[in-house]
Amino acid sequence: MSHQESTRRRVRFGPSIMIVFALLVVPSFLALVGFVFVSNARIAVATADSLMDRFTNEMRSSARELINPGRRLILSASALGSLNPDFLSGDRVSGYLLSLLSQKDSSLSSYVGLQDGGFVQVRRLQPGSRIQDVTVTDPMKFGIRHIEPGASEQWRESYVFLDENGAALARSSDATRYDARSRSWYVQAAAARKMVVSDPYIFSSTGLPGVTIAAPFYRGEALAGVVATDISLETVSRFLLERALGSNSINLIYGDGGTVFASSNAADNYRTVNEKIELNTLSTIASELPAFAVALRAKHPGSRLTFSHPGSGEEYVAIFLELGEEFGNQWTMLSITPMNDFKAAFNRNGQLIVYFGSAAILLQLLLIYVLSRRISRPLERITRSIQNLVSLRDTKRASGERHSWIDEIATLSGAVQRLSSTLSAFTSYIPRDLVTDLLSTGKPIEIGGESRYLTILFTDLKDFSSLSEVTPSRELLIRVSAYLELMTYAIKEEAGTVDKFIGDAVMAFWGAPLLNQHHAYHACVAALKGKKRMASLNAHLASEGKPPLHVRIGIHSDAVLVGNIGSTERLSYTVMGDGVNVAARLEGVNKEYGTQICVSQTLFKEAGERLWMRPIDRITVKGRKGDLIIFELLGTRDGPEETRATEIEKRVCDLTQTAFDLYSQGDFGAAALGYAQLVEQFQDPVAAVMLEKCRSAMVAPRAS
Question: Is the predicted pLDDT of residue 281 greater than 90, yes or no?
Answer without folding.
Answer: no
